[in-house]
Amino acid sequence: MIKLQIVGNLGKDCIVKEVNGKNVINFSVAHTERFKDSQGNQKERTTWVECAYWSDKTAIAQYLTKGKMVYAEGAPEADGYLNKENQPAATLRMRVQSIQLLGGGDGNAAPRPAGAAVTSAPASVSDASAVDDDLPF
Fold first, then answer.
1. Cystine design at 96: which of 29, 30, 74, 77 (Cβ 3.0–4.6 Å)?
2. Structural domains in the chain?
């Protein structure tokens, strides 16, 4: 399995739907990268990831509002299509397996809802016990 980890801000409030008797929370996460191009001009590029979180516990949805910062991980999916100008384009999606509220939006850390399926962020690089020495690279 390929795992995608993202940290970013929600572009709009999440939407909770019921599909075939199961709950899904849909939300979009944006990550903006700032960089200088080859001429030294400041540039900005925003990547959007459409997320689907299938969970029986939807209490977290009330906290997934526009501007909030989240950490999410799951399985990525990419879909290619032709845009309005008939040029190739792609959409990045993720089937979320875990999510953590990081705050943002109003500048305050978001409270963690009781009973929500939330996991911790990955261990920091300084946590030597989390490093796997058997990696092939």
1. 74
2. 4-130 (2.40.50.140)
